[in-house]
Amino acid sequence: MGAVVVFAAVSLDGYVARDDDMPGPLFDWYENGDVETTFSDEDRRFHVTPQTAEFLRATRSRMAVMVCGRRLFDITDGWGGVPPNGEHVVVVTHRPADDWAHLGTAPFSFVPDVRTGMERARELAGDRDVTVSAGDVGGQALREGLVDRLALCLVPVVLGSGRPFFGAGGPPELQFEDPQVVQGSRVTHLVYDIRR
Asked: Could you cite one Gene Ontology molecular function of this protein (predicted)?
């Protein structure tokens, strides 16, 4: 069985987006290098440093399913029906997506709660990893003990306010193993396994 990983770019003060839900400078590192790479959607290409490219390639190869909340799904319009990483997206929502143009044709599942979402994602992922978007869904998964690892792409910026990495409920008390550290340009990739 693969790992469940909360994966996100985050500011020094712990935000994954501004108050308007936009990432602002948190995604600048996706275009600050010479190496072209992507996650699973070949039409979404990034240009990063060699160190970041290697980190993303290794991470991408293990990704099978992404779990996110309805807010992110709505902001991105479900990425046009193409999963941004992995082969399937599980959306945690209480609101039906009946009017979404890609409903029934895109590899997306809609579930009512985080626990059901994680069960569905693990079933789909098999022995590969499940990534969870940071914010409310990631925070809920952490508080329910459903996460194995955090992968933070720490960006040297302070946003001052915005959407917190651990969501509205804040983080639970957790301890982590020492991180794997990959230094990119204008981003430090930190991977922490949760101590069990």
From this structure: 5-amino-6-(5-phosphoribosylamino)uracil reductase activity
